[in-house]
Amino acid sequence: MATLPQLTSSPTIIVAGGFFILYILGTVIYNLFFHPLRKFPGPKHLALSRLPVTWATLRGQRAQFRLHLHRKYGDVVRIASDELSFAHGQGWKEIYGTSANARGTRAIRGVEEEGGANSVVTANGDVHTRQKRLMTIAFSEKSLKENEATFVKYADKLVQRMEESRGSPMNMSDWYNFTTFDVIGKLLFDESLGLLENSRYIPWVESVQQFLKAFAIIVVLNEYLFFRVFWNLVPHSVLSRQRQKFLNYTSDKLARYFDRIKEEKGRHSILGKLLEGGITMPELQQNSPILVFGGSETAATVLRCMTFLLFKNPRCMEKVVKEIRTRFSSSEEITYDVLLGMDYLTACVEESIRMYTPCTNGLPRVVEEGGSMICGEMIPAGTLISVAGFSLLRSPNYYHLPDSFIPERWLPNAQKLDPGFAKDDRNAFQPFSYGAHNCPGKKMGYYEIRLIMTKVLWHFDLELVPKDGGALDNWDHIENYQTYVKAPLWVKATPVKRGSV
């Protein structure tokens, strides 16, 4: 029997080791000097492997990782051997537009193919056109106004719970989530979730962030062959369970909803309108998680980030509070139509979204055969591409003083206030993606954010409370997996004595 020393010195092992070393050296030389992406700027070590960008994603720091690279290397950066990151205004149209020669990555397509259908995010051609038309109708301004009472009901319920706190610190990160999920539960499933009523999460809502984290990790790991093999061999992995937990809860909600509409109940909900429009059951199952996320987590993220930014900028807090309290003499006057005319409030919302965009990274695309001209560069087929939303909205190439919270940049007279705002490129501001694949619930999200923030600031004076790490100095390094992990935001709410402004 051969001993260990004999094995390690055998010709077969030596030859295999030699070939492995040659393969590594050959890959390094090819990626640095012969790869089609060699001309694009970026650190040399990132051109050698996907491991650095993968590690940044696993740590929840992908957005910050890309921001650092774009600040140093420019609008287009090679962040892996086969991947380019774009912090360029044209990127939205040329990567996600209808004429873009790119498709969803293997991971995104594969997740949806398990359900036998595509969602409005990844569908193409006639399927996408039909789904988007139905979504546009379901989330139209007409539909929004028909459901205005539902939004007001839960915004007022939040106010009631804040009054009941009697000045005790409240984690507004949770309370904003309670409110937006109660709203979307009623709008989608015609079901009251009871989060505001019971002051606690239900398992379905708790599973949302686990789902988003698992999805973001699956997308980046799926570029590795060994992970795809592992995923197929071990379908009940931790990541799979986290993703499936949320999907199972959502399927259960759908099943109960279908039982109710058989009894002629709930037909006026958003799902009811989609069903009446002809959306198929598999399509509804694929779209439901997107509707849940887009209608709840996005608005809650903006609300907590906006609250934090107003605390950090007292001048802005004072100005928006004055606008709200001088405009409305009663809470009942706070309506959809009037909120549209609140210029400084709207500017604060836009600036909060710019500073902490709810979707930190655009979904990756793969360039199709024939390549694609993007931002003036011919990108070869097979290249992974995406817009780094967080980086673009913090880019000094597109925004004056990009790291400063200055709502005035969004006002009509912005350039008179500061000539530097003339360089701001509002076309680069696409936080809800672009074109045919943009978020159909954008109007709903803006209304919900305006309504809840206005109700809170009309009724209460807010004070940030340093509790359990709640008073963070900087949220720029919060973990993010497509959107931000909830950071605590402890607030003391004191009812306003009417007459103060």
TrEMBL record:
Family of the protein in this entry: Belongs to the cytochrome P450 family.
Binding site for heme: C439
Region forming the signal peptide: none
The UniProt record lists the keyword Metal-binding: yes
Keywords, alphabetical: Heme, Iron, Membrane, Metal-binding, Monooxygenase, Oxidoreductase, Transmembrane, Transmembrane helix
Protein name: Benzoate 4-monooxygenase cytochrome P450
PANTHER family, per the entry: CYTOCHROME P450, CYTOCHROME P450 MONOOXYGENASE ASQL-RELATED
Organism (species): Trichophyton violaceum
Gene3D superfamilies (alphabetical): Cytochrome P450
Highest taxon, organism lineage: Eukaryota
Entry's transmembrane regions: 12-34
Cofactor: heme
UniProt keyword annotation of Membrane present: yes
One MF annotation (Gene Ontology) recorded for this entry: oxidoreductase activity, acting on paired donors, with incorporation or reduction of molecular oxygen
